[in-house]
Amino acid sequence: MDPAASRPAVVIDNGTGYTKMGFAGNVEPCFIVPTVVAVNESFQNQARGSSKSSNWLAQHSAGVMADLDFYIGEEAHARSRSSSVYNLTYPIKHGQVENWDAMERFWQHCIFNYLRCDPEDHYFLLTESPLTAPESREYTGEIMFETFNIPGLYIAVQPVLALAAGYTTSKCEMTGVVVDVGDGATHVVPVADGYVIGSSIKSIPISGKDVTLFIQQLMRERGEHVPPEDSFEVARKVKETYCYTCSDIVKEYNKHDKEPAKYIKQWKGVKPKTGAPYTCDIGYERFLGPEVFFSPEIYSSDFSSPLPVVIDKCIQSAPIDTRRALYKNIVLSGGSTMFKDFHRRLQRDLKKIVDARVLASDARLGGEVKAQPVEVNVVSHPIQKFAVWFGGSVLGSTPEFFEACHTKAEYEEYGASICRTNPVFKGMY
């Protein structure tokens, strides 16, 4: 028996906006930190500048120092604000890792400074976005086995984990559509019996970050006095604190205009440079922010299909014998589905589309054959925010998980290509 298999696996869910990390078997992640790395630029310039004249040792030690001098998460934000030598990099864009050096540093801090564990003693479960290239899994495997020397690795697809998060019931339903709205990417992924139906995956260029940018734009156009260097952060906090989904925009405007005192919120902040306090109003953006998912034309002219339509198209392109089951289990995942009443609005709009189709087919058949009504059900649960992580935690604590992992021995024998496939294992259904 592998001694590492008796210890809990480490589950790290790397997202564009936030990374959730912790140990399998826990109910929630130990840490949720923004996926950002602050690297000290002055060291690198020093190492470059000293190459001509000065000695090898100085250069070498500058290189070593540069490797150690970086921060991640909130600390990175704080450092880059307070001093000008740290540059922020966001290693993941639109759900894909773009900067592998930064990603390696990020993982280093995750493991040693946050989780404080010895990577050689734990199996690891990492997650990836549904449309990731196989090469990216190889890079991940290489970093994990070479740099951190881990005993075993499993790379799971995020939507499958989000479905597995519904495990709290005795019978797990591994067929469903996962609507994953993260910070950098929105995917609608149909899963049948734990297998992703790859040809029917739909992705939308509107995600949590766009909601933030839209709120920022609305506040700027209205002339709220938010210091420009802080405006994105303020918009993000406003989104996370005050936004909700409304059932009808016009009614909502009227409500706000009728009783501004009830609906308009005050934002209090401090200017980062001078420390002077400032306040600004938060009005219509409270419901206009999340509205970009349901009427995207208010935000961008490039993309105009509302989320419910995309979900419907996705299910209609899936194999016909899975469709009813898919409509019945639409699971939300990702922080940007946390808006109040988001699931109600989604279910209502989808039901409209489906009912209209059933009516049309009845009319076409002239009432000879009655279609069975289609049940549409959008599942919402309190852990949506880290459903992917929680699913990983559940699966990582099953005994089958350790058998499904790629081990260090396999990696040494066959190389990084073993990481390309990660079999669906018994624990999943």
From TrEMBL:
Record keywords: Actin-binding, ATP-binding, Cytoplasm, Cytoskeleton, Nucleotide-binding
Protein name as catalogued: Actin-related protein 3
Gene3D superfamilies named in the record: 3.30.420.40, Actin, Chain A, domain 4
Keyword ATP-binding on entry: yes
A single BP term in Gene Ontology: Arp2/3 complex-mediated actin nucleation
Subcellular localization, as worded in the UniProt entry: Cytoplasm, Cytoskeleton
Pfam family, one: Actin
Record flagged with keyword rRNA-binding: no
Family recorded in the similarity comment: Belongs to the actin family. ARP3 subfamily.
SMART domains: ACTIN
InterPro entries the record matches: Actin, ATPase_NBD
Domain of life: Eukaryota
GO MF assignments: actin binding; ATP binding
SUPFAM superfamilies: Actin-like ATPase domain
GO cellular component, one term: cytoskeleton
